[in-house]
TrEMBL record:
This is Ectoine/hydroxyectoine ABC transporter substrate-binding protein EhuB. Pfam families: SBP_bac_3. Coiled coil: none annotated. It comes from Streptomyces milbemycinicus. Signal peptide: none annotated. The keyword Signal applies.
Amino acid sequence: MAPPRGIHKDISGRRLNRRALLAGGAAMGLLGATACSRVSSADSKDGGNLLSRLRSQGTVRLGIAGEIPFGYIDKNGDFTGEAPEIAKVIFKRLGVAHVQPVPTEFASLIPGLRSQQFDVVSAGMYINPDRCQQVIFSDPDYRVRDSFIVRKGNPKNLHKYEDFAKSGAKLASGSAYAQIGYAVNAGVKESDIMVLPDQLAGLLAVEQGRADAFAGTAVTVRNVIRQSGGRRVEATEPFQALLDGKPDIGAGGFAFRPEETKLRDAFNVELHKMKKSGELLRIVGPFGFTKAEMTDLTAKELCR
């Protein structure tokens, strides 16, 4: 999911430590291997020619940032995540049979796309005006809200960031999560926020009583509670975080080079079909996404 202005978020911290650890040396080796097989998109007339080139070669290279649940290589060495699984389906329907992962750091995704290290960013990247100045986006495939991990029954009645400022309850969040910025914006002192490595550490802090709540995105929170089998904690209802009194919408999609509007538009056509039929939710459901994360927002709206 990315962060409010200048803050690196979690969606799962889109914002999950919202941007991510790589699979080390193997990833760097893959980057080196792909650098010499770049597909030129120099012909930008009439929306670019990358789609026809990809169809001819039969493979599209997807930039990922090693972040669960957005795009990552799992413990079995398989390439997966909500965005890659969507891409596998759509590109097959566009006549491109194979997808090839190109892992990199999140901050390198847009530079890597623009320098043709890969063809598409497939990392659940948040769509915001700053990024829209550098790349073009598909319409978003998800919209994420925030949630808290709290003790069973939510004894301190914590439902939004303002509740911490009023009650003095102890809030925890992840290192570089945008949720820290949201809390500070709501009146919580940054020095009072417990900063932890990730959402698992947050769950343990709440279970052990060292924190009253851990803030993350709803997808992050649900995933860690489910995976841990936590019996002493629960997730609060998702809510929309505010920044300077306005909703800070975390909605992510696929990024393309600015000249490749033909590819982006063809991708959008298939994405909209999947949304309408419910196929999109069936694909991303195993990664913790629910109907609440589905959205009809457009890239155009988010780019404003």
